[in-house]
Amino acid sequence: MLRELSITQRSFPLVAPFRIARGVKYAADVVTVELHQAGRIGRGESVPYARYGESVASVIEEMEALRAELVAGMGRDELQARLPPGAARNALDAAMWDLESQLSSVPVWVQLGRPPRSALVSAITIGIDTPERMAAAASRIAGAGLIKIKVDADDPAARIEAVRRAAPLAHLMVDPNESWTIELLRDMQPMLERAGVELLEQPLPADADDALLGFSSRIPICADEACHVTSDLPRLRDRYQAVNIKLDKTGGLTEAWRLLRAARVDGFKIMAGCMVCSSLGITPALEIAREAEFIDLDGPLWLQDDYPDGVSLQGGFLLPPSPAFWGG
């Protein structure tokens, strides 16, 4: 046996309920992977997502089905062929990148041909609540460089306007999480422009976005649920102007990097996004974030207790962990 494989489930309670259009989250339920080889440990984390038919149990089952090949030394290229995009592949892919960096003494950022990780401005998310409570939340982070506003189809204008009044200088993104119709999207255009919203994330259901064909939006529209992997790009060209790259959708950094490069060639703006997760899930995504126009990696900031040596927020900047935390 070349390696040892450890797969565990972990639940991180949140500091407050996280409300979006499709439900409320009280904890981040993640799957953590460790690959042990030659005295080194490569780590990865993923968030099973019900929207994509995943659960903690199903993700662990996918991993266990490959246990023999994984401990025998399966590499990232074979992993891409053996598992579909999703949370199971993401955690394993991240652990492989981490382990490779340690065994070779070549950091992940060097393998990607990029400079070392540095501080970034990430969006701070305000979940759905009453306009008054969302304004109060915005006033507490009014100095943030970028605020992401979660809304649904219930009077989104009042919520967006409340946040804008409370944080007049912040850059704004709005995320309806597939809850709008094309009629509401059309009606919201003047208000979004007036509020200075810079990006609108997945307003329509991914399976109903044909309605965006021929629609000229005043605000760039970003594909989230509609964009998982590189092969999705051709159908997105006449619907969206940006794509949200999340490692739990792509199935890891390996495919995320391919998607990033292909999306650039196709002229899309890039958003680096995340699920609500720990710093172990966020750190690989920092490699995508430094190439992005929009960064939304505040997942660990929602946790009551994150890894003590993980990412941190200081002076409005998201600071990466030390190289020893993940990826060299």
TrEMBL record:
Binds 1 Mg(2+) ion per subunit. The active site is at residues 150, 246. Mg(2+) binds at residues 175, 201, 224. One of its GO terms (molecular function) is metal ion binding. Signal peptide: none annotated. One of its GO terms (biological process) is amino acid catabolic process. Residues 131-222 form the Mandelate racemase/muconate lactonizing enzyme C-terminal domain. Its cofactor is Mg(2+). InterPro entries: DgoD-like, Dipeptide_epimerase, Enolase-like_C_sf, Enolase-like_N, Enolase_C-like, Mandel_Rmase/mucon_lact_enz_CS, Mandelate_racemase_C, Mandelate_racemase_N_dom. Keywords: Isomerase, Magnesium, Metal-binding. Its EC number is 5.1.1.-. Belongs to the mandelate racemase/muconate lactonizing enzyme family. NCBIfam families: racemase_DgcA. This is Dipeptide epimerase.
